[in-house]
């Protein structure tokens, strides 16, 4: 009888200990799960195409993981410039970012092909190349820097604004101080046009335009609108001189710390949000120049052929470095 009770006591103890253990395991798991947050930094305004597309990503991600993985967005360069974000991803101090591909040229020259003037006139063709082998090789070239490029989103066709004069022909650009992204091909393009290129992070741009440190800048219409450049730039020229893709980058150390299932969810959410963002950009196109006109900008449509001709020397300068095969893949 005594033996029976001792056995029973042991059994009770064991059961309750196992129970406690399980409870503890559940707690740490819960805590562990709570700790998974993807912080995404970008430089644009809260109502920009980037932020809206990333909101979509956040919704999909949080829904698919039932809130196990949280997404936090940091817009308006709150966490620094695009270069800072890329470096943060590379070092593993930031989980994700959406940046123009132009500053990526400083990390992998493969991206430079997009920076050639007028190389992309048809975005559908660009999507095809970016989603195919050429795009994959570009993204893969970032892996040894600790960066995983999940996909190409859209920033847009870049248009020129300034505070000095209406631009109708290439010569009108000559002498203007133009802020550019930190990219050698962009800088060369504006040099060839006789402008004074001023590379500068986006976060400093509005003030520079307002204080007239620079005369002009170039960005897609959606940015000219959502960053309110129309308040300080009276002239808008619909040049479309560069096509600016955006890259969705994730820190390799963060990505590899996720379970294969969560990696899959992340990939799917990025793909779905990317598609949404591209379509959103296309849908905006028509109304934007109308809006900007209403907001007081004087809009001109310079002759693209003349601009293309004037910027041809840029191809000669960079074709060796970029590779004619890649250039041809986009031109064909
Ligand atoms: O990627 O710096 C720029 O002009 C970019 O278009 C912007 O940061 C979005």
Give a written overview of the molecule.
With 332 residues, the protein is an alpha/beta fold. The longest helix is centred in the last third of the chain and has 35 residues, at 260-294. The termini are far apart. 40% of the residues are buried. A six-stranded mixed β-sheet has the order 7-6-8-5-9-11, sandwiched between helices. The model is unreliable at 7-33 (pLDDT under 50). The chain has helices at residues 2-34, 49-64, 82-91, 123-131, 133-140, 184-192, 205-210, 221-226, 252-256, 260-294, 304-310, 312-322, 324-331, and strands at 37-41, 70-74, 96-100, 147-157, 159-162, 177-180, 196-199, 216-219, 235-237, 243-251, 298-300. The chain has two domains: 34-155 and 245-284, Bacterial extracellular solute-binding protein, family 7 (D-Maltodextrin-Binding Protein, domain 2), CATH 3.40.190.170; 157-244 and 286-330, Bacterial extracellular solute-binding protein, family 7 (D-Maltodextrin-Binding Protein, domain 2), CATH 3.40.190.170. The protein has 13 helices and eleven strands. The structure holds (2R,3R)-2,3,4-trihydroxybutanoic acid. (2R,3R)-2,3,4-trihydroxybutanoic acid (EAX) is lined by residues 43-44, 82, 99-100, 155, 181, 202, 219, 223, 244, 246.
Q: What is the CATH T-level topology of the largest domain?
A: D-Maltodextrin-Binding Protein, domain 2
Briefly note the structural class of the backbone.
alpha/beta
Can you tell me the number of structural domains?
2
Oligomeric composition of the shown chains: single chain
CATH class of the largest domain: Alpha Beta
Order of helices and strands: HEHEHEHHEEEHEHEHEEHHEHHH
């Amino acid at each position: 009888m005594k033996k029976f009770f001792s056995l029973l006591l042991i059994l009770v103890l064991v059961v309750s200990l196992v129970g406690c253990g399980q409870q503890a395991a559940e707690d740490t798991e819960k805590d562990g799960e709570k700790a998974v947050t993807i912080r995404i930094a970008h430089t644009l305004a809260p109502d920009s195409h980037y932020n809206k597309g990333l909101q979509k990503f956040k919704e999909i991600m949080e829904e698919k993981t039932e809130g196990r993985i949280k997404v936090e967005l940091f817009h308006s360069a709150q966490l620094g410039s695009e270069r800072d974000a890329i470096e943060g991803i590379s070092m593993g101090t930031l989980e994700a970012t959406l940046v123009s591909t132009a500053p990526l040229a400083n990390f992998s020259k493969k991206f430079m092909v997009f920076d050639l003037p007028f190389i992309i006139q048809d975005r559908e063709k660009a999507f095809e190349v970016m989603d195919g082998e050429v795009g994959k090789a570009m993204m893969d070239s970032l892996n040894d820097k600790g960066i995983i490029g999940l996909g190409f989103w859209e920033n847009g066709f870049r248009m020129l604004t300034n505070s000095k004069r209406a631009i109708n022909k290439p010569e009108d650009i000559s002498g203007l101080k133009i802020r550019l992204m930190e990219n050698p091909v962009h800088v060369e393009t504006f040099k060839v046009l006789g402008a004074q290129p001023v590379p500068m992070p986006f976060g400093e741009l509005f003030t520079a335009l307002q204080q007239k440190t620079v005369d002009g800048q170039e960005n897609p219409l959606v940015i000219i609108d959502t960053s309110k450049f129309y308040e300080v730039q009276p002239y808008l020229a619909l040049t479309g001189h560069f096509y600016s893709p955006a890259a969705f980058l994730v820190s390799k150390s963060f990505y590899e710390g996720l379970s294969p299932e969560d990696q899959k969810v992340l990939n799917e959410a990025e793909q779905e949000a990317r598609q949404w963002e591209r379509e959103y950009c296309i849908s905006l196109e028509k109304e934007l120049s109308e809006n900007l006109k209403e907001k007081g900008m004087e809009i001109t449509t310079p002759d693209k052929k003349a601009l293309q001709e004037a910027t041809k020397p840029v191809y000669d300068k960079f074709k060796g470095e970029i590779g004619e095969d890649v250039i041809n893949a986009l031109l064909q």
